[in-house]
Amino acid sequence: MKKRFVGLSVILLAAFAGLYPAQEKPQPVRANPALLVIDIQNAYLPRMSEQDKKMGMEMINHLVNLFRAHQFPIIRVYHTDPKYGPKPGNEEFEYPKTVAIKDEDAKIIKNYPSAFKKTELDKVLKEKDVNTLFLCGLSSVGCVIATFHGAMDLDYNVWLVEDALIGPDAEKTKAVLQIYHTRLINYFAIELLLENLANIEAAGRLQSESAAQVLESLIAARGLEAAIAEYRKTIAGNERYAMNETEMNALGYRYLQGGRTAEALAVFEINTETFPRSWNVWDSLAEACMNSGDMDKAEKYYQKSVELNPENQNGKDALRHIQGSRLNAAGETKETLRFDAGAQTGLQGPYLEQKPPGSRPEIFAPGIISSSKAWEFAVTFTPDGRELYFTRRRGGGQNTIMVSRWEKKGWTAPEEAAFAKGFPSNEPSITPDGRKLYFGCNRTRPGAERAEYGIWVVERTAAGGWSEPRYHGPGMYVSAARNGSLYMTDVTGIVSRSRPVIIYPRTGEGYGTPQMVGGGVNTPVVADHGFIAPDESYILFDSNHRPGGQGGEGDLYVCFRKADGSWGEAINLGDTINTPATNFCPSVSPDGRYIFFATYRDIYWVSAKILDNLKEKRKWP
Description:
Number of domains: 3
Shape: globular
Mean pLDDT: 88
Helix content: 25-40%
Number of helices: 14
Low-confidence stretches: 1-29, 198-207
Largest sheet: 6 strands, parallel
Number of strands: 31
CATH topology of the largest domain: Tachylectin-2, Chain A
């Protein structure tokens, strides 16, 4: 059967034939290629599809290393808008530090989608005698395509690199690949071309069959088990077939992203057998194991990857996640729910008649609020303390906002809040005056065509209930100050793509321009789940991977307000509060006496007097 790779060879030979003089016996004429890396900046990457980003960033690094090894030019392109940025010199303007670019690589800064429009790119390429361009980067539906057409207009021989294009929607990226399939090239073909570019005859090596493509065809024709057996029998180690690490890894990710985990695992296992010294193939196999729920193997393979490459931050983060998940499961309460939803518990008094904690955290209301085999987090109370709202997620189900009420006969067992029924909802937050409740919800907002996550709000009615929800805006985990200013996590990049905690300052009947909260809140690592004291004298938050942390999936911190109104440095709440597991979603009771937070999949509380002691650790007057 004729392989797609062979068909690509014919296209390539035809395309490169124009680089040779029309003679009966073509003489070797050097084609001069360059790699164009487009707009993979910190400001834009968070907007991109996770599917595209994982594979694309990996492939781009391989391409950069390939072109550098063969001493062909690498051109890095950066986009900025004179009004909206990102501004050169800022971290958001730069490429991630994991990208293997160097200062010696030519740099182009553009203000338009095409990297050729009103830039020196064409001049730089002509100075380097470049006539062939390979394009990678983002966005697959924007600047990459605009640059592609700009290159075509200037008579460059231009190609789009398969698996190296990144877009905000993976399906749209696939559509682009289909539209431009005649100008699409894969890593293996580029590798062979760079090795043999001085001699057109050597391009015949493109007729070699790709082991990854043969394996893909075998799986489609015979099924996974028979295909793997045939591969090991006739293809593995056979010089007739070209085994390429990046191409095989890309095949694995296509299966993984298509929900075919067994096929992905098999492909990644073959890659680790063939390239056992590659940290990246072990990282990919570990990711597939985690996706399948096999945490033991995921941990083993991530450890192997990090051993081979101690700078593998993704592997180190994954190991922390696995460690945190295990500790969460081990430390979770064994108490099952003791009451049916909405039933009377008979418990009287504040805080469900629970014994108040001291300076050491205690699990809150086990068997009633905190329970086994479920995540509980994000607590908020009405100002009178007679209603409690929180989030519960059972097993692999969706987030649900629960409510418990202190009635004449006692506290009711938690039941789903009426205003959030039917939609995945989480992280409720009641304003200090009790008039509004903000929450996160995945539902269709007015004017939208499909459901998306955002902040919704309900208001107290004259009858004492809540109004119908209305859409408030983008964001996550709202916390309101007494003056009406709103603090939240910026999950959509309104202020920064790094997802910091921001503030919408209250101004009259509306809100001012959102700003990133300063001081130690978002430095050196951005904060998440910020809770602001009603008088804005301090802010609690969680943050991952800060120096001196527990090393799990987030520690709790506090920043105190200085006399001049600015924020001080972040202070870790300490090992008594933070655990090596997951610590997140802090809040404070309306009376200011207790801090609530989530760890070990349950809700814990501790005396807020610990903050008085931490004030002594402030590093400013």
